[in-house]
Specification:
Blueprint (H helix, E strand, L loop, with lengths): L1 H14 L6 H10 L2 H13 L4 E2 L4 E9 L2 E8 L10 H22 L1 H10 L2 E8 L4 E5 L1
Parallel strand pairs: 3-4
Antiparallel strand pairs: 1-2, 2-3, 4-5
Helix pairs in contact: 2-5
Length: 138
C-alpha cells in the first residue's frame, strides 16, 4: 500500500510536469485541499484494484467522499493460515489490521500531514471473500 501511495506521487509529478523534485511535490500535495487530495488518492488507488496486500488481504474497492477515503478490504478466511483461527482470534486480527493500517499512515509524511492538519479521514471496511462484513476501522 505504501508503494501505491508513493507511485501516486510519481504520477502526480508527471502530470504536473515537474522534474521529479520529491520535496516540491510533497509541498504541492500539502497545499491541496483535503477534498481534492482525497479524490486523487481514491482515484489512483481504485485504478489499481484489486491490490493484494498479503497472503490473506486484498483491497477490493476505494472511494472518496468529501474529506474521507474509504478502503474496502477482503480477508480470505479459507486460506490455510486462517483455518480455525478467525473464530477464536477475531479480536486479535482486528488489532493486527489496525496496526498494519496505522503504520502505513504514520510512515507517509504527506498523508500524516493531511490527517493531522487538514482533517483527512481514512476508513477501512473488512469483509470475507464473499463480501460478508467482518469489522470496520473508522
Amino acid at each position: 500500500m505504501k508503494s501505491l501511495i508513493l507511485s501516486m506521487l510519481l504520477l502526480l509529478s508527471l502530470n504536473a510536469g515537474m522534474n521529479n523534485n520529491e520535496e516540491e511535490l510533497k509541498e504541492k500535495i500539502k497545499a491541496m485541499s483535503v477534498e481534492k487530495f482525497a479524490r486523487i488518492l481514491a482515484n489512483k488507488t481504485a485504478s489499481a484494484v484489486p491490490i493484494k496486500i498479503d497472503a490473506i488481504t486484498t483491497v477490493t474497492k476505494v472511494i472518496a467522499l468529501e474529506n474521507s477515503v474509504t478502503y474496502f478490504k477482503s480477508i480470505d478466511l479459507n486460506h490455510e493460515m486462517m483455518k480455525g483461527k478467525w473464530e477464536n482470534k477475531s479480536e486479535y486480527f482486528k488489532t493486527v489490521m489496525f496496526d498494519q493500517d496505522s503504520k502505513i499512515v504514520c510512515r507517509v509524511d504527506f498523508l500524516n500531514h493531511m490527517i493531522v492538519n487538514k482533517g483527512l479521514v481514512l476508513k477501512y471496511y473488512y469483509t470475507d471473500t464473499e463480501y460478508r462484513p467482518l469489522f470496520s476501522l473508522l
